[in-house]
Amino acid sequence: MKSKTRYNIKLAEKKEVLVKNCAIELLDEWYDMYQETALRDKIVLHPLEYYRRVFELSQNKEYKVDIRLYMAEAEGKNIAGIVTCFYNRKATYLYGASRNIGREKMPAYALQWKAICDAIDEGCLEYDMFGIPPDDDPSHPMHGLYRFKTGFGGEVVRRPGCYDFVLNKFAYKFYSIAESARTYYFKKIMKK
Fold this sequence. Notes:
Helix content is 43%, strand content 19%. It has helices at 3-14, 27-41, 48-58, 107-121, 143-150, 169-190; strands at 18-22, 66-74, 77-87, 90-98, 126-128.
């Protein structure tokens, strides 16, 4: 871990940020935080029912997936939360949210540290931060996310992107137009 990350984990502890593994009944409160995060960071979310379904599916013993909602509390109020998936000796950080208030208490660091410690306790061999910008470019709009995630150490893994294999050129043309319109809408209209 980078020294600044260790410092921020200790700062959260000093500021009495408490992290707890919560049940699905706090999902509505987490989603409210996630909407606040989306407005602040100009990201697009799925509807609440999408996240509820993720938790419901994880309760099916057939899948053997453990989805956890961690909430960080300070002064009696939940100020941040993350959703993490535990499966097959690997933990993956999926979603993170925070209130505009209390961010100076470094709850995001406390949350990740708790999830990492739980992953170790569960016998996980990996903790996947699940995506960063391509490189350490300060001009990238998500550079802060890059710094945050790489601050915990570990290895940066690069994977190939997605590719379309066209089976029907006529239908693909309409798909391409719709995809371009969607991208324009989310990047130019929603982000304003």
